[in-house]
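Tokens help. Consider this.
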Amino acid sequence: MTTRLPVSEMPAQPQPSHHSLLAELWQQFNSQFPTDNDCLEELCKRACQDGIIRCRHCGSQALDTAFSARAAVCRNCRQPTWLTAGTFFHHVRLPRPWLAAIWLMERGVSVSSCQFHKLAGIAYSTAWHIFNKLATVIQSEMDDNACALPSSLFSPVICKRSRETPARSHPLAEEEHIARSLQAQKECANFPAYMTASATSGPPSDLASQSAGTQESPLKSAGDNPESTQPGSSIDCQPMSAQEEKVYKVLKEQEVHFDAICARTGLPAGEVSSLLTFLELAGHIRRRPGDRYLRTADDKSAPSQKIGDRHCTALVELTASAEALVKNVINFVQEHYQGISRKYLQNYLAAYWCHIDRGRWQQGSLLKACFRFGPIRNKEIRSRVSPALVRILSCP
């Protein structure tokens, strides 16, 4: 005779591992969308249902479509309209891996480019571009509630080289270059001391491999020195340097993309990134979705509180939660990607947000955001560099 244990004493059911969950979801996706035509039909159907696709000639949403056809015919003017033209899926030849990546991410599954290229049977470069473009879309959805943190806090997971890494140097040399740029401009912008310390001395001791108590956390030191982050301090009244004025003059009447700023100023991407960080902290410019920048005075929707004050205050108020957030991100990266490059750190922070915030990134939300975003060129992805202050959101 068997003895049945009370419910409170029954052993907990083991949670499915990441690999078993990925295998199960991949099998479901293959059953639901076995061919490229099925995936293309899903993309076109969703675009029409959400009202994203309109007739290019008369603007009508009344479109007649055929199965897996990329073109639709308007019922009013009878003119054809390409359903994916001018959207995130512009010039996409194989829709299946794109839809598969979105399908998995909407269900909270994070897959590295190396895993996905083997899983979907595509080239590694294709998988890499897919996930970086999706991370760009996710990043554009971050609002003003995003926390700004020094990129140096994530140094424990930066172990891969990129195009920004100096020759014959460790990947962390990129962070050292950013730190030197910030230090060179410290006198001009009166940059908060704790930000420079974090950029030059590395992450907090409890985040790195050092013993506890040997190095004070920069986030905690910010709270111990309120004068360096006092709202309304001289950070926003110091004169601009010559390089800052050069960048500021590019931003006039409309939003300008980061790549366009680099092209018009002729400055390296890393230097432009640090200059934009200083201008943003000083309240002169505002960062918009999609790596676009705008002068604060020209932004009609800008809040009355200055960007620099808001960011500095957020860093002081979020000491404990920010350190916990950094630890969670580091564990997430080490578990799913083993290591990353500093150049694309911001994209991995966006992927982390999509992974944990299941309320915001529920099923169907990422695909809708992709249709809203528009096309992204491969050149834009390759030329992107994470700024000195990276933005991150956690689950509310």
